[in-house]
Amino acid sequence: MVVCSATLHSFDVKKLAERLMHFPTWVDLKGEDSVPETVHHVVCMVDPKTDTSWRNLKRPIKTDEVHAKDNTRFGSNTPEMFSEAVKLLKGEYVITAINEHKMDKGIIFCRTKIDCDNMENHLNALGGGPRNRNNPYSCVCLHGDRKPAERKENLEKFKRGEVKFLICTDVAARGIDVTGVPYVINVTLPDEKNNYVHRIGRVGRAERMGLAISLVSSVPEKVWYHSNCSNRGKNCWNTRLTDQGGCCIWYNEPQYLADIEEHLNCTIQQVDPDLKVPCDEFDGKVVYGQKKAQMGSNYQTHTAQMAPSVEILAELEMAAQKYFIKRYCMKDKSFLK
Length: 337
Hints:
Elements: H1 11-20, E1 39-46, H2 79-100, E2 106-109, H3 113-126, E3 139-142, H4 148-160, E4 165-168, H5 170-173, E5 183-186, H6 193-200, E6 210-217, E7 221-224, E8 248-251, H7 253-264, E9 269-271, H8 295-329
Parallel strand pairs: 1-6, 1-9, 2-4, 2-5, 3-4, 5-6
Antiparallel strand pairs: 7-8
Enzyme class: hydrolase
EC number: 3.6.4.13
Domain Helicase C-terminal: 90-279
């Protein structure tokens, strides 16, 4: 049996191998996850304790109603109040990111289907409605609650450039291939570090520069988690925590960020709430969506720098092979002279 997967090291693939195979051999053609040099990825911390603009928003995003029964009024200073504030601020930060970078095409990842719906309604409301041809935030949704025909149509609209933004969940985005996407916004970090790599990998393809912005709450955020639901959350409004028989958990984004950074063996650059991304001294001014400047010459320089090491590696490889043959394979060593 041969199984091929783009997410070779994911938990689901490993469980599948354990169930179907005996002593499987793993062949990894890609190696450890890494971020291509054509992808800039940054993090913006969303802190409702320092940014209190959520108190006076004129047109706030509709939230997921996790806190419908909680006291979230300003001044209560409860975890629920700060959690609700994070949801409001993230809606504003998405708009800030789009305006700051003059985004004309991008994928917006939300954690749940209801989050996708709310983001779609928010962007269309601010942009003058889905039928407004000049809507700067024109968008469509892609998730499991939309009918297959609608999902297909929405994806085609995005590919043809009829709308600027595709709003989707991780599950809905699996397997789709859209070229020339310069921007990704993660409204919430995924709880699987591999999914982060796959999300930001939607940009930076075909040697074109891409920017991925992740909004990370500095405080715990209460979110839907329908592990106790037989109907997978449909028409469920049980806001108790899962350990109390409900369908909510407290989401710890700083921990997920730490896991992602450990996985990638790097510290992801953080930017301020104005979402301005500083120019790298090496790259200079970057136009996302265009091909990386001097891509060929950079590779030539890199090759020249690596040449001595590659030569030494080749000599070591030859020596190791000769030793193996002499030690284990051949009695007659005359062919080695």
